[in-house]
Design a protein that fits this description.
Strand content: 15-25%
Helix content: 40-55%
CATH class of the largest domain: Mainly Alpha
InterPro entries: ACT-like_dom_sf, ACT_dom, Beta-grasp_dom_sf, HD/PDEase_dom, HD_domain, NT_sf, RelA/Spo_fam, RelA/SpoT_AH_RIS
Family: Belongs to the relA/spoT family.
Number of strands: 20
Radius of gyration: 34 Å
CATH topology of the largest domain: Hypothetical protein af1432
Strand order of the largest sheet: 1-2-5-4-3
Pfam family, one: RelA_SpoT
Shape: globular
CATH architecture of the largest domain: Orthogonal Bundle
CATH superfamily of the largest domain: Hypothetical protein af1432
GO molecular function: GTP diphosphokinase activity; guanosine-3',5'-bis(diphosphate) 3'-diphosphatase activity; kinase activity
Keywords: Kinase, Transferase
Distance between the termini: 86 Å
Structural class: alpha+beta
Amino acid sequence: MEPVITPEDVPALAGAPDVIAEANRFLAEQTLYLKAEDRALLRNAFLFAEASHRSQIRQSGEPYISHPLAVAGILTEWKLDTQALAAALLHDVMEDSGVSKLELTEKFGKTVAELVDGLSKIDKLEFESKEEAQAENFRKMLLAMARDLRVMLIKLADRTHNMRTLDSVRPDKQKRIARETLEIYAPVANRIGLNGVYRELDDLSFKYLHPRRYEVLSKALKAARGNRREVVTKILDGIRQKLAGAQIEASVSGREKNLASIHRKMLEKHLSFSEVLDIYGFRVIVKDVPTCYVAMGALHSLFKPIAGKFKDYIAIPKANGYQSLHTTLFGPYGTPIEIQIRTGDMHHIADAGVASHWMYKSGDEGFSDVQQKTHQWLQSLLELQSESGDAVEFLEHIKVDLFPDQVYVFTPKGKILNLPQGATCVDFAYAVHSDIGDRCIAAKINHELAPLRSRLKNGDQVEIVTAAHARPNPSWLTFVTTGKARSHIRHFLRTLRFDESVLLGERLLNQACTTLGQQASISAEMWERYLRENGDKSREEVLADIGLGKRLPVVVAKRLLQLAGQWADEPAPGKKTTAVTIRGTEGMSIQFAHCCNPIPGDPILGVVKKDQGLIIHTHDCPVLTKNRVDSDRLIDVEWDPEVSRLFDVTIRVMSANKRGTLASIAAAIAEAESTISAVSMNGSSETDEQGHNMIQFTLQVSNRSHLAKIMRGIRQLPTVFRLSRMHGPV
């Protein structure tokens, strides 16, 4: 006996017979591919959802249950299983009706409850901004999708129905939802191969973001249909006759491009609608792969191909598994014709996507190459999540990888990798393996050395040169494009900064204890008490906070000494404050102020600044005097006698405007064993009449004595009249 919904089952829907009729059509027609007992479960899920949403009405005035029912109906087009359909019917009960996950598990099983939980928003947490809350919801959903693709399939069906019924929502909300759809959901649909959903979401987003443009283009397209019908019919007949003459069995059809893609083309190429000739595309479906190439040859003899407009997505499939031959031909009256040639299986994947191939099954057995690619992308979401600092950063990485434009490049062994448009050698290195990315030092493109920032082009063969002790460079963040590369680099820098901050924090804490007149003999037990008292996770976390300036070392030292029973209100007499030694190689945790550019030999003072660590200034720096820094944030520092690194310092030279002057100054600097990093020359308004120039050099020096030696050498030149060191930025 078929499961049926009667008005007695849902008395609240007595005034909405259309919903009952739709529920019965769903159970009796749309789910016929399922077993009778499965449809009985769906009947129970519908009744439970209807009872949960009974008091709720959509903004269109319909009972709320009509929405989950429509979502489940969309999923039947992809032949999804019982658990996914039940989760679609129940997808809002946790969020809107307060039903618990435990209750769903008891009634419909653990899998259905997990799917519904993956779709429910995180409303109970508090976020600093709406963007952060939205990003956290996306993160939860995308990670649930990585574990079970059905989460995203249900969400896409949910968003599709919401977009179809967006007319009843106020205009500002329409725009917000449409923009979100365009930025996230449409690209996700494209990424997992749901071409039909992608096109529909793309068009509906365009409709609500640019209603006037949508209306004008719709009318223009409708008019063009009539005007171009004769041309389209002539092309279709010509293609069919040519293929039949070549004894190729094929199904030929014409399709109209969607409005959003026509609009994009008009914007990108600065065309009017009348200049967009290829608003129609043609599709040829044949029995197997060899016939695709034979059919293409036949069509190239019918109409002349346009050079550079052929793409072989059969040999090199798109990242979402899409396969077809694309060619553009000169049709009758000079009209460009876009033709796609594919097999029936390829057509199925192009329409329903890799998603329809039960990607959520456990294990990888039975996966085709294209399914494996999507599966690998889903798994990469989990890797990105583990390295992204927060939800907003995670979403930023995902958005980068969702853009559909791809570049296909080869490894030295001939393996094909697809990367986003604009990807560089560093992106390629991280795509091969995160260890290769972390240790890359150079790259070869088509067997020639190239900078790591070089952008890759289709067909490039790329080889990465690595070194065992190399590590990511912060400057890479200015040019990498893939989410994987960006997240790995940021993760490394965060870890590096944390480690450096812990070391600096320990030095500052030891100095604070000594300043307070006590030895820093804090036992593990005292640390445990301090951590419990302040709710900190570890000793390293406290030390890192001190190093980053988030906590004052003297405050932490006082409390630790109190817990250890060593605290005295006044420092013990005769105790000398120990200064923190600056070596210049501490990394990101210690920075040198640009306002005074200190170098070894200058009297210096440290300032603890929040989120920046320890900033080193000269004693007489005007910025310190002007800002009146809190004395608790001032740290005694001194130069290590064995500083080995070089420091930038800027000098200003007033010289005669004679030939060879610049060369003689450069020679004097080189003789003093220094390197010029930068040089700039300006005519001085005060001395132009006397023929003088003002030249600024940025030099690399080891210490103050080295600078004095350089300046002595320059002063001895007869063409130099005045020389001074500049302390501030140039």
